[in-house]
Amino acid sequence: MSNRKKRIRILIIDDEASIRDGCSQVLSRNGYEVVCTGDALEGFKFARQDRYDLILLDLKMPGMKGIDILKKLRKDHDIAAKIIIITGYGTIPLSVEAIKNGADDFLTKPFTSTELRRAVIKVLERKDIDRPDPQVTGLIGNSDYMRELEETIRRIAKTDSTILITGESGTGKELVAQTIHSMSMRFEKPFVPVDCSSLVETLMESALFGHVKGAFSGATESRTARFQMADNGTLFLDEISNISLKVQATLLRVIQEQEIPRVGSSKTESVDVRLIAATNREEPKGRFLPTSSG
Known about the structure:
- By secondary structure, this protein is of the alpha/beta class.
- Helix content is 37%, strand content 18%.
């Protein structure tokens, strides 16, 4: 276990003891320093009085609503902690409101320990690149290639085109995508990343387009679409080569019509989203949706 991970501090604010204790056990076993409270007001005080890298915040609690805590924390510029919302309510308005008010991600109860670890790691990996200076790309280097890349990013950021970024794993494709977003006219709106390599086709459709309650076996609650979470902002699809042609065809219709078909519903819902995708593969022409390459 690295020393860096041991220094990462996580605050859990959830009035449900089983969720609070379960999250604490999983994260502690993975080397994080964890502080827990089941009281909303106490959790708010903890967040204000001490430094945390990440806060897991229940959306519905007695005393003080999680959404109100979120709004107050985001108004305090001294609090740079990432915030993951925990909710058993999974409704579209609440989830979208949380993202628009500064939440970095959300988990819908019940969730597995794997889903928890994945969400925490992903959010913490984005900690240092969330708000690049809009005057620069946030990339390091003075070579001709880097200067050309910076100029390309500036040019692309001024448009609202769909973008495909190619490159080997670990070359900073998400950083480029976030920089494009931060320099675009959508910079004040959500940047929502999706790791396409971690989802099978059925789950990918539900994640991207959402589903209604009863859409399939196990769909006990409606699920907010990532497109809805990114409304008026940017949706980043990492490793898009893992998406099937069927889902790509639906994506193309969404891009063209700016409407999403929620799984299990005959109705479509309007969205306004810029799509940026990335892949580490060199795919044959026509494999992906029409894009402007980055």
